[in-house]
Specification:
There is one protein chain. By secondary structure, the protein is α/β, with parallel strands linked by helices. The protein has two domains: 119 residues, no CATH class; 296 residues, Spore Coat Polysaccharide Biosynthesis Protein SpsA, Chain A (Alpha-Beta Complex), CATH 3.90.550. The chain is 29% helix and 14% strand. It is built from 14 helices and 17 strands. The strands form four sheets. A nine-stranded mixed β-sheet has the order 4-9-7-6-10-15-11-16-17. It is elongated and about 85 Å long. It is a single-pass type II membrane protein.
């Protein structure tokens, strides 16, 4: 029979000063933290005075438990925990009236492992966001006042792009080798000028109505985002009853197969475009070929080339004219983290992050974009990878073998919401970005960790691709054996930073609705080759 271990100390060495009606803290802080680190629960007994709703000793015991990941068990329902009107403490702590103390062991034993993880995660979020530093404490006080008077926070910072001037050369698309879509009609290239996604439409509701979401989910109430992947969706009636929000229904609302499907975006959200963000380093010829391949791609807003090379582009370099802006951004240093900076020139919610040697067809990109529009909070991409457990060494491994399960999608060819670029650059722990810079590796793993940690969902893989490298391109860093050893180290380090493994497995990929469906001769597939 397995017996639960309960630590009860009846002697108190060096008790800390406390109120007459409350339990004193015993020992030094370091000693208490060591005990709490090995604990699942930490008992927090409210002061005996029913008129006293909070005390310094109570607060200290609560914060020490949250800091090391123990679940606070607050004995006494008259206690008021910090910011109780804004923070839902029931998601991170257990509140039990004192008369039910005899049931306490049974109540704690009834919690599932799933609940324990969720509560420890939430407790850690509350500690790190609101109480861990004096700066956080002050920011929380100001944010609570601002929330009560319904004043939104300041807009989150965007990275100003220092553009590198360049000159366009020949018209793109003249190379016959680039026309790999056959007779496939992917829909109209937008004839109107590129348009940006609407911004800051929910400034008031974000502060006044979404207080639960903003205070109890990462990243907290300290920033105002221009848009998030969690914004509410209008019902289908909005497409047809004159809402004026720019929907593009399939067949003007009657539906249809391939021909009608390719002529409109459809879906549940209004029309929009996406931005290609392409990272490059001293491979000008490869870059020019990749840019030229984007010519004629529907719903493309612009291309942002993140120039990671220390040397500027060659003076005689002729950039392809693809009919859309190509913005070349200068970086302060060569860092893979630059891929995910929230550049101010990115004016769409959807970002297609793509390597300069990625080789994707237009129909694959369009299919990925359509899938992402229905799963805006996920990473949607092409090559899948997974994390595996090393039984012998009791550690995590990065694995790129063919598998029926995956937990990561490489961001060398993936769609994600710009919201995650803000979180990656300004909210995610700095230690992770530092490790990416140290190894010049693992930025894609870090982004997958971040999104899975926020959403508790796995990424979405589209098409059957397992690789996307172009034939004939110079050898990439990922072909080096040390590349995989570094990625093993990254995964295990990221797990230590988050305190658990946030990646989740998925066992399916997404294909087009009419994939392998037999159709009448007068109908066509949504995507001919997918």
């Amino acid at each position: 029979i397995h017996l639960d271990q309960v630590l009860v100390e009846f002697t108190c060495k060096s008790p800390q000063p406390s109120l007459p009606t409350e339990w004193a803290l015993c020992g030094e802080r370091e000693e208490r933290l060591e005990v709490l680190k090995a604990s699942t629960f930490a008992l927090v007994i409210s002061p005996g005075d029913g008129q006293l709703m909070a005390s310094a000793g109570n607060g200290m015991r609560l914060f020490e438990a949250l800091e090391v990941g123990a679940i606070p068990v607050v004995l006494g329902d008259h206690a008021r925990l910090p910011y109780h009107q804004l923070v839902h403490w029931s998601e991170a702590a257990i509140m039990v009236p004192k008369p039910r103390i005899t049931e306490l062991h049974f109540l704690l034993r009834s919690l599932s492992d799933n609940d324990l993880l969720a509560m420890r995660r939430q407790g850690r979020f509350l500690w790190e966001t609101y109480f861990s530093t004096s700066e956080n404490v002050l920011g929380t006080i100001l944010a609570s006042v601002r929330t009560r008077i319904q004043v939104p926070p300041a807009p989150i910072h965007e990275e100003p792009a220092q553009e590198i001037p360049h000159k366009a050369g020949k018209m793109a698309g003249t190379d016959a080798n680039l026309a790999d879509n056959g007779d496939l009609d992917l829909g109209p290239v937008e004839t109107e000028p590129p348009y940006a996604s609407p911004r800051f439409l929910r400034n008031f509701t974000y502060t006044a109505s979404d207080t639960y979401q903003t205070w109890n989910r990462a990243p907290g109430p300290f920033h105002l985002f221009p848009h998030t992947p969690l914004d509410p969706v209008l019902p289908s009636e909005a497409k047809f009853l004159g809402s004026g929000t720019g929907f593009r229904p399939i067949g003007s609302g009657t539906g249809g197969s391939g021909k009608e499907f390719q002529a409109a975006l459809g879906g549940n959200v209004p029309r929009e475009q996406f931005t290609v963000v392409m990272l490059t380093y001293e491979r000008e010829e490869v870059l020019m070929n990749s840019l030229e391949r984007l010519n004629g791609l529907p719903y493309l807003n612009k291309v942002v080339v993140v120039w990671n090379s220390p040397k500027p582009p060659s003076d005689d370099l002729l950039w392809p004219d693809i009919g859309l802006p190509i913005v070349v951004v200068r970086t302060e240093k060569n860092s893979l983290n630059n891929r995910f900076l929230p550049w101010d020139v990115v004016e769409t919610e959807a970002i297609l992050s793509i390597d300069d040697d990625a080789h994707l067809r237009h129909d694959e990109i369009m299919f990925g974009f359509r899938v992402w529009r229905e799963a805006r909070d996920r990473i949607v991409g092409f090559p899948g990878r997974f994390h595996a457990w090393d039984v012998n060494h009791h550690s995590w491994l990065y694995n790129s073998n063919y598998s029926c399960e995956l937990s990561m999608v490489l961001t060398g060819a993936a769609f994600f919401h710009k919201y995650y670029a803000y979180l990656y650059s300004y909210v995610m722990p700095q230690a992770i970005r530092d490790m990416v810079d140290e190894y010049i590796n693992c930025e894609d793993i870090a982004m997958n960790f971040l999104v899975s940690h926020i959403t508790r969902k796995p990424p979405i893989k589209v098409t059957s691709r397992w690789t996307f490298r172009c034939p004939g391109c110079p050898q990439a860093l990922s072909h080096d054996d040390s590349h995989f050893h570094e990625r093993h180290k990254c995964i295990n380090f990221f797990v230590k930073v988050y305190g658990y493994m946030p990646l989740l497995y998925t066992q399916f990929r997404v294909d087009s609705v009419l994939f392998k469906t037999r159709l009448p001769h007068d109908k066509t597939k949504c995507f001919k080759f997918i």
